[in-house]
Amino acid sequence: MNQSYAKPLPVPSEESKPFWEACRRHKLRFQRCSACGQFWFPPSNVCPECLSDTWEWALTSGRGSVFSFVVFHRVYHPAFRDAVPYPVALIALDDGPRFISNVVDCAVEDIRVGMPVEAVTVVERRHARPGQGAALVVAMDALGKAVDARERATVARLFRGFLDQDLVVSVADWPDRQAYATRLAWAVGDGGLAALCREPAELAFFRLHRTYGVMGRPSRNALCWLIRVPRGAGEALRALWSEGAGLLRGAEGFAHWYTFTDEDDPDHFMVVSEWESWAAAHAYLTGPAFELLPGLIAAEAVMEPVVSVPLDTT
Amino acid sequence: MQHPGARLRNRYAIVGVGQSEIGEVPGSTSLGLLTTAMKQAIEDAGLTNRDVDGLITRGPDDIYCHHQRMGQRLGINASFSTSTDNGGASQILSVALACMAIDAGLCETVVSGFGRNTWSRKNQNDATRMRGNIVPQSQEENEFEPEFGYFGAPATHAFGARRHMALYGTTREHFGHIVVTFRDHASRNPCAQKREPLTLEKYLAARLIVDPFGLFDCSLVTDGAGALVITSAERARDLPRPPVYVGGFGFRNNLRGWFYDDHMVDTAAQQASRQAYEMAGLGPQDVDCAQIYDCFTYMVLTQLEDYGFCIKGEGGPFAASGALSLGGALPTNTAGGQLSEGHCEGMLQIVEAVHQVRRDRPPDRQVQDCNVAVVSGHGGNTVCHSSLLLQRTP
Fold first, then answer.
1. Which member of A85, A90, A113 has the closest CB to residue B166?
2. Is some CB atom of chain A closer than 8 A to the CB atom of B175?
3. Which residues pair with A204 in a beta bridge?
């Protein structure tokens, strides 16, 4: 969608930096007292319950409910001009403190006080451009529209676009190794993720699984898989892509693709493809063309589909 | 057991009030407006600046040591002076501080006041505004808010309004009745900023600001100032105006925050008002008129409950019953309040309470046989509350 991100970005203090760092890794962490177990927010250096100065940034489930909410109609900041009317909610976590966030994937008129919600990190960015910023926005997803918390990601890996170096995607590994790939993705400029929150960037959505759209467009039929090749064999795959051969061209119903390299592992890749129909995507994934792929790259390459459920079209 | 503060009950009195021009006063300065109000209050008390030895002020947060600036302008060397920092709860705090300072023998006669030129600052040309940003740096949005599009006081209070609606079935019509009533009161007040009549239909048709608040749920942007003179009951007897005795005051500051516990619905007004009632030896049934801090309509509604005028959850039907009108069971914000008369952080509401207890308003604005008036103050990022009970007979 290539529109610049002009909304206010986090300006983390030394005290709040761990919160935003956790958000960047799609985790919701708050300070919790090691002495009395109490959570608190906003950040402080002692527990407001017992004044203990022993505490940790503890992971929360991200499950909670709407304590109260308002809907902004007035534009207080020019970057929200196109966003109004938009909701701002006070979220009460089941196992953590209250904090301000937004409610996403839910019509404004359907939001209710007491409604259960679950945290998601929402993406929004990409492509370096001076003066524009990248930020991570923590938002809340209506429960029931989000994936089951039991399947919550435990590890996130970062992939950088192979053909488009500005595109960075995070892929989460799920405990049961099935179904869902990444809840979100984003891309940043040359500064990389380390400077995500202050990065000059252009905005785009890149969400996989179920209702996720790709690059700001709703994508009904996205297919994603990880490719693991033997040590050193990654060059073969890079060569294929560099020659523009691709691995998908010519497949029936193929529309677009995006290719990525694991930031920490030169032999680990990811492909996201879009298809004209789910049937076409599924046919490719289960057909002979897909089975031939490892041979094109390296005999021992492992092709691991990470999105294999029909996408929700609602 | 008697409240320890009862020792101060009716021993101090407000003996002078003043106010500047209120509303849109192009070119005004906050210090200039407050100087006018304080001069008027001192003269109203039949005193001169030489009689004043205490000064408690509040102004825009970006004026450092505000009380020093005012003392300089009014030619006052003070035995006791300070600037307060409790937002809209500051004005009643200044009355209490005055009583306590006089009681401790630190000074004898205190002038307190609040002034602002918020309308003028908002409407200045850009070059002037560059030198004096309307939002002082100290009040700019914090982290964890602007990232999510959360800005401004209306939203903060609207969170409470929404929760009250969800818990008790309160409606926007209930909020509307409050401002429609106050506008009717303002229409009788020649000094009020907004005097044109308001109907419930017009209220509901107005544009939304931060839902559930629309335009008329929000208080006005005002230039103006108000001021008081406080001294001992003994000295008050020699002064020209009928003394308005300070029966009681109370405070509660829920510093852990509006979002903590259920402070946005069970507000600090509960504890503050109880303290004031106990100090004064009075209860809600004794109150003849109320001046309730109305930065937003919802705040009136919840305070009516928290002050014991109705039970929690029934503020909406109570407001819609007509009780708040002049001539009603609890005439409230009889000069129009901050939703219509003008927003001077509650100072004009103390001034109005003094006039009601003096019984010197014209007949169409005067609460009959007014003996006890309650005033509330609320502010400082929504967590500070102050209560004041004024009475005619000690």
1. A113
2. no
3. none
Candidates B145, B146, B162; nearest CB to A70 = B162
Residue at token pair 């309308």? B119
Higher-confidence residue: A164 or B81? B81
User: In chain A, which residue's Cα lies nearest the Cα of B144?
Assistant: A100
Burial of B171 (0-12, 13-18, 19+ CB in 10 A): middle
Find tokens 């676009």 and name the residue. A161
The answer to whether the peptide bond before residue B212 is cis (omega within 30 degrees of 0) is yes
Residue B100's pLDDT is: 98
pLDDT score for A174:
37
B255-272 in b/e form (b: 16+ CB < 10 A) is: eeebbeeebbbebbbbbb
Is the preceding peptide bond at A200 cis, omega within 30 degrees of 0? no
- The pLDDT value recorded for residue A290 is 73
Tokens of B269: 């007004």
Q: Determine how many CB atoms are found less than 10 A away from the CB of residue B209.
A: 22
Using the Cβ of B159 and the Cβ atoms of chain A, whether some distance falls under 8 Å is answered with yes
Instruction: For B277-297, write each residue's pLDDT tens digit.
Output: 999 999 999 999 999 999 999
Q: Where are the alpha helices (DSSP H) in chain B?
A: 30-44, 66-74, 90-103, 118-123, 126-131, 152-168, 172-187, 200-205, 233-236, 269-280, 297-306, 315-320, 337-340, 347-358
pLDDT in tens, A266-298: 788 877 777 777 778 778 877 777 776 666 666
B208 and A85: CB-CB below 8 Å? Answer: yes
Q: Which residues contact B363 (CB under 8 A, 6 or more apart)?
A: none
* Contact status, residue A303 vs residue A290, Cβ threshold 8 Å: yes
How many angstroms separate the CA of residue B12 from the nearest CA in chain A?
Answer: 38
Per the CB < 8 Å rule, is B143 touching A7? no
pTM for this model (two decimals): 0.75
* Single-letter residue type at B173: E
Q: How many CB atoms lie within 10 A of CB B345?
A: 28
Nearest by CB to residue A70, choosing from B142, B155, B256, is: B155
CB contact under 8 A, A10 and B143: yes
Closest Cβ–Cβ partner in B154, B162, B213 for A68:
B162
φ, ψ for residue B102, nearest 5 deg: -65, -40
Q: Do the beta carbons of residue A184 and residue A121 sit within 8 Å?
A: yes
